[in-house]
């Protein structure tokens, strides 16, 4: 064996031993990155609360039949501004389509205190107006999702409890208020909703609502009779709200997913 052969064999043995030892050492390869969270989706149930400022116009027609000094008929009309507030809750469901169009249904119910801002008499002194005591709506929403921002338009059925409000007197006669009634009408509007967290959103919304307003007949003391017909009770509603998004029906009722 030559010296060169001996050196070459020793070097090869050292390399083999080093490779075997390296194979037994623990690996220091970096772990794979965690999976990305799923993108935010507007699909699912939501429930929340809201507060609103509301104001508009209450318009009415009246025919006053006075017996002093003879039988006199006073046809009158008035239009009185209204303002007040609403507090309530809403719930609904959103469906998301592949082109990011969001279609939703929302139901709401509110306590309302929207009444006349001016009850001065008009013409013969009839200053009656309509007060909105409760307000609800069943609406469709159509929006386009920009990630966590959802602008939308909305419209549907509106209903509420309406009662007469204001001074009701004419020609020296005082008229009692008629009873409150439930009425239906329509509402249209627009808004924008923003997801601050995966399950919490905030929204700002505007609605225009039209109902008929209070109508009725009453006997005035001492000698008069009045018939009132509601023309329009128009209300502009500006509101802010908070919703909790529930991504599944099982989560809504506190049960695990059933895989349906």
Written description of the protein model:
- InterPro entries: Beta-barrel_OMP (IPR027385), OMP-like (IPR051692), OMP/PagP_B-barrel (IPR011250).
- It is found in: Cell outer membrane.
- The chain is mainly beta.
- It has a single domain (40-252), classed as Porin (Beta Barrel).
- It contains 2 helices and 11 strands, in the order H-E-E-E-E-E-E-E-E-E-E-E-H.
- The strands form 2 sheets. The chain has an 8-stranded antiparallel barrel with strand order 1-2-3-4-5-8-9-11. Strands 6-7 form a two-stranded antiparallel sheet.
- Strand 1 (44-66) and strand 2 form a beta hairpin.
Summarize the topology.
Elements: H1 3-24, E1 44-66, E2 72-96, E3 101-116, E4 129-144, E5 149-165, E6 169-170, E7 173-174, E8 181-195, E9 200-211, E10 216-220, E11 224-246, H2 249-252
Antiparallel strand pairs: 1-2, 1-11, 2-3, 3-4, 4-5, 5-8, 6-7, 8-9, 9-11, 10-11
Q: What brief labels describe this structure?
A:
260 residues; mainly beta; Porin; 8-stranded antiparallel beta barrel; two-stranded antiparallel sheet; rod-shaped; disordered C terminus; OMP/PagP_B-barrel
Order of helices and strands: HEEEEEEEEEEEH
Q: The CATH topology, please?
A: Porin
* Rg result: 35 Å
Q: What is the total domain count? A: 1
Could you give the order of strands across the largest sheet? 1-2-3-4-5-8-9-11
Globular, elongated, flat, extended or rod-shaped: what is the shape?
rod-shaped
Work out the strand percent.
over 45%
Unreliable stretches (pLDDT < 50, length at least 5) are 121-125, 255-260
Q: Structural class of the secondary structure composition?
A: mainly beta
User: What's the main sheet like?
Assistant: 8 strands, antiparallel, barrel
For the termini, the CA-CA separation is 79 Å
Mean pLDDT: 78
Summarize the amount of helix as a percent range.
10-25%
Q: List how many beta strands DSSP finds.
A: 11
